[in-house]
Design a protein that fits this description.
By secondary structure, the chain is of the alpha+beta class. Helices cover 19% and strands 29% of the residues.
């Protein structure tokens, strides 16, 4: 029976990292983009060996993403949720007159949850959002075997979000009883 050769680091680090980058990009729907000293959690779609992201307008905020040339992409394992690989990608904006526009917006519409209208989403994105395509370079910042032990915890960014009003009142709460020790 024929078996495919397993891609490992000993078989060539670049091939291993390229395969890992592509596999995590396809399987995971969330990653973190790190640029200008800030991490941004984003949903994405993997298409034609690149990460495609829509931002701005009513979509996820990525301030000044169109001005960035390269950024770091932190990918996590879909199975464990842990950080798996961090790679550097080159950023390009996909405009409406670009030949990739149709394929990228079709993939983004298919991957976007809770769209108001599937038919008009691409037109709305053309008016008020930025669609970016992030192509991996060969530069890897973190990979299995070289991941740091620190937790990468960060303070949440300030937000105007708040609750709509006071919390609801709950009547007749069940009394919390202690278990008897003897």
């Amino acid at each position: 029976m024929w078996q495919a050769r397993q891609v490992t680091e000993s078989a060539g680090g670049d091939a291993f990292h390229a395969a890992l980058t592509q596999e995590t990009g396809k399987k995971s729907a969330v990653c973190w983009l790190r640029y200008d000293g800030v991490d941004h959690a984003v949903w994405h779609v993997w298409l034609d060996d690149a990460l495609c992201v829509v931002s701005g307008g009513d979509e996820q905020p990525l301030p000044d993403i169109e001005d960035v040339e390269t950024l770091e992409v932190v990918m996590r394992s879909k199975d464990t949720g842990q950080r798996l690989i961090t790679w550097v990608g080159s950023v390009s904006v996909v405009n409406r007159d670009d030949e990739r526009w149709e394929a990228v917006t079709t993939a983004l519409v298919a991957g976007r949850l809770n769209l108001a209208s599937l038919d008009t989403a691409a037109d709305e994105w053309a008016r008020s959002s930025v669609i970016t395509r992030i192509v991996p370079t060969t530069e890897i910042r973190e990979a299995p075997g070289s991941l740091p032990d620190d937790a990468h915890l960060a303070e949440p960014r300030p937000t105007p979000a708040t609750t709509r009003g006071p919390l609801p009142k709950v009547f007749h709460r069940r009394a919390r009883r202690r278990p008897k020790l003897s």
